[in-house]
Amino acid sequence: MEYSKSVKNRLQRVNGQLQGILRMIEEERDCVEVVTQLSAIKSALDRTVGLVVSENLERCVRESVQSGESTDEHVQQAVKLLMKSR
Amino acid sequence: MEYSKSVKNRLQRVNGQLQGILRMIEEERDCVEVVTQLSAIKSALDRTVGLVVSENLERCVRESVQSGESTDEHVQQAVKLLMKSR
Amino acid sequence: MEYSKSVKNRLQRVNGQLQGILRMIEEERDCVEVVTQLSAIKSALDRTVGLVVSENLERCVRESVQSGESTDEHVQQAVKLLMKSR
Amino acid sequence: MEYSKSVKNRLQRVNGQLQGILRMIEEERDCVEVVTQLSAIKSALDRTVGLVVSENLERCVRESVQSGESTDEHVQQAVKLLMKSR
């Protein structure tokens, strides 16, 4: 699958945030600050999962419509993938 | 939206589980048991959310295909709804 | 364990919300409304889990302090229980 | 706060996993594989949060016990931090 610029940018930002946390750990920063940053990365990853699944499902549904196939299975698989990634 | 038998059955089971927890609280049962049951209900509600969104999205996509409309917006709304319900 | 009035009240409210959702399902209400209510119950259950674990851990730690025992294991078990209930 | 070797090792592994995902995105790998890896990182971050909060709460409770202060507030803050990081 070809991933959009938006997906790539999000993951680059997550990467930057993670490097920031690694520094905070070395600097022995306060636990509440570190946990807050860890939670922020988790939320960013969550939104990235939503974007990847949404972009992929849109494409799969369009392709099925063009080839006259049923779209139900694609929808079920995408929802299952999102539920598993919770 | 018409909800399937499967959605209705799941919610009835959750209702039964919740009545069970209310009794456990009155009986002052062990906290680990109560928390385990509360988590089980949360997971059951989670799966019910997935089923409701999946059934609804399948129907919306089919209707859009029949009327020749784009399906993208339905997909994006469904994924957004699932992400918000995490 | 004896559960506080606050825990009991929260669960009674969840019970009321669940009965409300069962009616919404019968009335074939819009899927977004139903999913929003299901998510609200999940969040309420989540906060109840936090309250139950917090009240229990406070008591266990106090009892350990009075009997001169280590508190570490109680803390680890409580955190493990919270993580498992995510 | 001084962070344990275990916390540091976990975050280094997460860092490695994230670099792996960035490569998978460039290689346009299958969306299910990428989402599975993103979920794995989320779970690893989750467990790291649990470890950081647990280690910090153990230390805070011990210090309170030694200085004869109440431990309740530390417990409540730690549970609140864990609930917020869900």
Automatic annotation (TrEMBL), chains A, B, C, D:
<dbReference type="GO" id="GO:0046872">
    <property type="term" value="F:metal ion binding"/>
</dbReference>
<dbReference type="GO" id="GO:0003677">
    <property type="term" value="F:DNA binding"/>
</dbReference>
<dbReference type="Pfam" id="PF02583">
    <property type="entry name" value="Trns_repr_metal"/>
</dbReference>
<dbReference type="InterPro" id="IPR003735">
    <property type="entry name" value="Metal_Tscrpt_repr"/>
</dbReference>
<protein>
    <submittedName>
        <fullName>Metal-sensitive transcriptional regulator</fullName>
    </submittedName>
</protein>
<dbReference type="GO" id="GO:0045892">
    <property type="term" value="P:negative regulation of DNA-templated transcription"/>
</dbReference>
<dbReference type="InterPro" id="IPR038390">
    <property type="entry name" value="Metal_Tscrpt_repr_sf"/>
</dbReference>
